[in-house]
Design a protein that fits this description.
5-stranded antiparallel β-sheet, 12 helices, binds adenosine monophosphate, binds glycine, 28% strand, alpha+beta
């Protein structure tokens, strides 16, 4: 099997690794210079070039990592060209690319989520704010690379964020519509649903750490680290399948856009049960970096089950133990951040290093992104994986100015009824 992985970050490095043992060729496009030390990479400048490349190189399967190519319709183009692809259709991808679409879908099909309104002007949103208490959440409708969600603590702060979106157009088209929603208290967990549109299998739970600083403080980021499995979420599994997974797959079929691929559920476990914070139309980053190494079932078999519409016959086998991933981010991230800092890897490194945002200059790897490296370890306990990773960081792997959380995997997952934000 020849596999082309689309994307350039840590998630795509992890996906390529997961294919490496069973595929004949794994190529990542565009990848990055770190991924290129382990896998072939290729730059393809347009979707048409992707199709041409697949036909020329005999690619059997394209696996799309990020949401952007899905939003642009790459999956549909590949399928039309007769190329097998794991990635939701553009229509199904709306479950991530339009938060308004996702919220209205959940409302229509009674899927538990935060109470919300959708507004398409500053005036309307100011009026709607009267029906919410603080904190509440203001979200841009469209894709905003993690910058579209604001938990606001006062009317003044809500006005500031809404004016930025509607008047200053801080998020461009993504902020033409906003969702105002109730703030949910609880703890967050992620779940991936592998589905052919009708049948599904859920993975183990994982947990991202979205905020920049220890103790879940500071601004939201693309994700500062993750671990899996999350045993405390298992008590909610059957409820989640019954109230969220089955209804959302049915909803997508009823709306004429069955979801085929990997659906990401971002969930809040509240004292009233599990509620959906967001859906994504792809694997999470950095969750993929901890889920994929735990899978015993090969990624090619999972993809074949999706493509052959036989997910009902798929069995997911998991390794014993836990996997932890700590993200090393550039100084300044998630705002403007430093670049081109030399990366060091020294003897004695035990963790696995995944390359997220790096490039090569004069034969040396340097940082080239907000999230630069992922330091990953799979062990029989979270404590052991943490010990290995944190012993390595700074000593055996790192770069100048790196920022990282010291508390990845330490969550207690208790519902904090009076959580301070
Ligand atoms: P989203 O992009 O919608 O997943 O939002 C990013 C992050 O904002 C989530 O991971 C949560 O930590 C937080 N968040 C979003 N919506 C809510 C909500 N209704 N209540 C509490 N926190 C939220
Ligand atoms: N880890 C969050 C995301 O991939 O969207």
């Amino acid at each position: 099997m020849n596999v082309l992985v689309i994307g350039s970050g840590g998630r795509e490095h992890a996906i390529a690794n997961a294919f490496a043992s069973s595929a004949d060729r794994v190529i990542v496009s565009p990848g990055n210079d770190g991924i290129a030390m382990f896998h072939q990479t290729v730059t393809l400048d347009s979707h048409e070039e992707v199709v041409q490349y697949c036909l020329q190189e005999g690619i059997d399967l394209v696996f799309i990592g990020p949401e952007q190519p899905i939003a642009e319709g790459l999956s549909d183009l590949l399928r039309l060209s007769g190329i097998a692809c794991i990635g939701a259709s553009q229509a199904a991808g709306r479950i991530e690319t339009s938060k308004g679409f996702a919220k209205e879908l959940m409302q229509k099909y009674h899927i538990p989520t935060a109470r919300f309104v959708i507004a398409d002007s500053l005036e309307q949103s100011i009026e709607e704010l009267q029906n919410f208490s603080y904190p509440c959440v203001v979200k841009a409708d469209g894709l905003a690379a993690g910058k579209g969600v604001h938990i606001v603590e006062s009317h003044a702060q809500a006005l500031e964020e809404l004016s930025a979106m509607f008047i200053d157009k801080s998020l461009g088209h993504a902020g033409n519509k906003v969702i105002i929603e109730e703030y949910l208290k609880g703890w967050e967990v992620s779940l991936f649903v592998i589905t052919d549109g009708d049948n599904y299998r859920c993975t183990v739970f994982s947990q991202d750490h979205k905020q920049l600083l220890d103790g879940d403080l500071g601004p939201n980021t693309g994700g500062m680290g993750a671990y899996a499995p999350v045993q405390s979420a298992e008590a909610y599994r059957s409820e989640i399948e019954d109230t969220i997974v089955k209804p959302v797959l049915q909803a997508m079929r009823s709306e004429g856009c069955p979801f085929e691929g990997i659906l990401y559920l971002g969930l809040m476990i509240t004292d009233l049960g599990a509620k959906v914070i967001e859906f994504n139309c792809r694997l999470g980053d950095p969750e993929a970096q901890v889920i994929l190494p735990l899978l015993k079932t090969g990624l090619p078999s999972i993809c074949q089950a999706i493509l052959n519409h036989q997910v009902d016959k798929l069995t997911l086998d998991w390794r014993e133990g836990y996997c932890v991933c700590v993200v090393l981010a550039a100084k300044g991230y998630p705002a403007q951040y430093e670049k081109e800092k030399p990366i060091w890897l020294r003897e004695g490194l035990i963790s696995e290093v995944i390359y997220a945002g790096v490039k090569e200059i004069d034969g040396s790897l340097v940082s080239n992104g907000g999230r630069v490296l992922n330091v990953v370890s799979g062990q029989d306990s979270i404590a052991k994986a943490r010990q290995i990773i944190y012993n390595d960081i700074g000593v055996a792997v790192g770069f100048e100015g790196m920022t990282y959380r010291k508390d990845i995997g330490l969550r207690t997952n208790k519902i904090l009824k009076d959580k301070q934000i």
